[in-house]
Amino acid sequence: MPNDFVIISLGGSIIIPEEIDIQFLKKFRQLILRQVKKGQRFIIIVGGGRTCRKYQNVAKEITKPTHEDLDWIGIHTTRLNAHLLRTIFREIAHPAVIRHYNEKIHTKKNVIIAAGWKPGHSTDYDATMWAKNFKSQTVLNLSNIDYVYDKDPKYHKDAKRFERVSWKDFRKLVGNKWDPGLNAPFDPVASREAQRLGIKIIIMNGRNLANLENFLNGKNFKGTIIEG
Asked: How many distinct structural domains can be found in the chain?
């Protein structure tokens, strides 16, 4: 397989903020189709997002699930979301949702859709490993934030935004421990691995599709670059 794929970690809450966002999916599909016509190829790893947390919260109200139980709920949610993505990209996508980043793939298709693999981390980690295996130096993380901040700007007016931040400083913000359903810009396990591998992560608001298209076209964009 060639290594010229754009690696995207697509947050599940971008697809389903409350209900499935059909208009977003239509526009996202058109954007990817335009970029494919320009010769770009994509590996899109889909997260579980709010749907995952809803299921996890129900389990917690009824019983005392283990971390592994909660992770499996999240993993299967990513797979459901991924099957939706694969369906809307059917004509240009590899016909199967890929679970494991080491899986051998033989395809001439321009889009590969992937989902969660096993407990212990989020799909951010899977995206990082896809980047490693495809020798890509960059992972594009599409979240619901414009930038990484030193604290939640919803509650702190003095929150400082980062346009660039080192891995050392970023990891101080997110910590080192994975917790199922954790809502962080990039998960701690993935962050540790990305730093070790020297992979650059770009975090941007996935709902700002004009900004995403600017990035894909090599233009100026809004977002946070984590590297070094």
From this structure: 1
